[in-house]
Design brief:
The protein is an alpha/beta fold. It folds into 2 domains: 125 residues, Aspartate Aminotransferase, domain 1, CATH 3.90.1150; 222 residues, Aspartate Aminotransferase, domain 2. Helices cover 40% and strands 15% of the residues. It has 12 helices and 13 strands. It has a 7-stranded mixed sheet with strand order 2-8-7-6-5-3-4, sandwiched between helices. A hairpin with an 8-residue loop joins strand 12 and strand 13. The longest helix is centred in the C-terminal third of the chain and has 24 residues. The protein is globular, with a radius of gyration of 21 Å. The structure holds pyridoxal-5'-phosphate. The site of pyridoxal-5'-phosphate has 14 residues, from helix 3.
């Protein structure tokens, strides 16, 4: 045996703050209303659950490594070429593989100030440097991102709509961003909340993928499809980028159960249509209720709102405590640089009524304190 040096991880990895998901439990409480991870309010389609149970019977067999039937079903639902789709264990897996495929030591990866925390993690994991670009009015700044891009820049990650702000860019704004970026930069449009958006100017990104040879769109089954526990996501991109992802991914990265469940979920369009309609209605009424109570609500295109407390960090934390005392779990935003805010997922009507009531009472109490 030779050598006696210490065991050292690769550069960048010790800089990662491991991703922390939203809380799922309050100690000692049984019936918690979980609005901390943007999981679809309706949960999965009953048809998807049926397929899930049936697929369990065949768990002895390896899955189809190419996820052919699932890619065909995705193509059919969204009008896309299955050959240019790749599936992953959640879109998180694909976001990470893109960093491995296109960025490394000495490279830069751009993301927006209040962008999804997985982006800097994916960059650091491959030794690249994450570059955070300041936002304007809690919205991604296209000009700023273009200015930040240089020869060393390899990837721009952009969530649209963005989590946690809920802000959204139009298709034309995405095109302006793409046109302003150097050609060696891969633009990753993370459209995790695409199915919730009702704005006509919005484009999830498939058309941009077809117009340019350096744009990829990622999607997920974790939000409107209500299948976060299954770990299933996909991407649509140029053939040469899909080829890179197919080389890098594990051969059986998507389980047979996830594939069968995903197909059934895609076929039940009535279920996601219903989820979208319910979300639009509650997003509007819940946002209005919070504003009436004196809380600032950033206009959101997703299934969540960013609630900003005029009294700052202490007030946001006290509001979170009041919510937890009432068995309601939401997400604190310190990790996203918004410690004066809470992100609240849009759940079912009765749940949102309760949250609005608790927060209205809380704000009244705060008013008495100050007055
Ligand atoms: C929830 C979310 C995802 C989805 O991740 P999965 O790995 O597919 O569960 C991706 N991007 C953003 C911005 C999200 O909020």
């Amino acid at each position: 045996m030779t050598g006696n040096g210490p065991l050292i991880p690769c550069a960048g990895i010790l800089d990662i703050d491991a991703y922390q998901g939203g809380l799922s439990e309050i100690e000692g409480r049984a019936n918690v209303i979980k609005l901390s991870s943007n999981e679809g309010a309706l949960g999965p389609s009953p048809k998807a659950l049926e397929a899930y149970r049936a697929a369990g019977e065949n768990v002895a067999r390896y899955p189809d490594g190419s996820a052919m039937a699932l890619r065909t079903a995705i193509g059919a639902r969204f009008g896309l070429d299955p050959a240019r789709i790749v599936c992953g264990a959640g879109s998180d897996e694909i976001l990470g593989l893109l960093a491995r495929g296109y960025a490394g030591a000495g490279d830069e990866v751009i993301y927006s100030q209040h962008g999804f925390l997985m982006y800097p993690i994916a960059a650091k994991a491959v030794g690249a440097t994450p570059v955070k670009v300041a936002e304007k009015n809690l919205c991604a700044d296209i000009e700023g991102m273009i200015k930040a891009a240089q020869d060393k820049t390899k990837i721009v990650y952009l969530a649209n709509p963005n989590n946690p702000t809920g802000s959204v860019l139009s298709g034309d704004e995405l095109r302006a961003l793409r046109k302003g970026l150097p050609s060696q930069v891969l633009l990753v449009i993370d459209a995790a909340y695409a199915e919730y958006v009702t704005d006509d100017a919005y484009e999830a990104g498939a058309a941009l993928v077809d117009e340019f040879d350096n744009v990829i769109m990622t999607r997920t089954f974790s939000k409107i499809f209500g299948l976060g526990g299954l770990r299933l996501g996909w991407a649509y991109g140029p053939a040469k980028v899909i080829d890179i992802l197919n080389r890098l991914r594990m051969p059986f990265n998507v389980s047979s159960i996830a594939q069968a469940t995903g197909i059934a979920a895609l076929e039940d369009k009535a279920h996601t249509d219903k989820a979208c309609a319910l979300n639009s209605e509650l997003l509007a009424s819940f946002s209005a209720a919070l504003r009436d109570g004196g809380i600032e609500v950033v206009p959101s295109a997703g299934n969540f709102v960013l609630a900003r407390f005029p009294g700052g960090v202490a007030q946001a934390e006290a509001a979170d405590v009041a919510l937890q005392e009432n068995d309601i779990l939401v997400r604190r935003m310190g990790g996203y640089g918004l410690p004066d805010s809470l992100r609240i997922t849009i759940g079912l009507g009765a749940q949102m009524d309760k949250v609005a009531r608790v927060l209205a009472d809380f704000m009244k109490g705060e008013g008495h304190k100050n007055g």
